[in-house]
Amino acid sequence: MLILRFFLVSVTLLLVLSGGMYIFTRNRSYLKFAWQTLRFTVLLLLVFGLLFVLERYVLVAWRVFL
Is the pLDDT of residue 66 over 70? Predict the structure, then answer.
């Protein structure tokens, strides 16, 4: 969980800095980078959540049936 928190703080800082750089330079590549980072983060969190659910409920329930 510590690694996940560090990742989320890092991504938040990255998004804020990218947004700030867009505001100062009006270069749309910063927005594109922020959007790609946000999509990757959401995908990674969904995969992590799916693995958490798999470990928590499916594997524990499998042991009950054995």
Answer: no
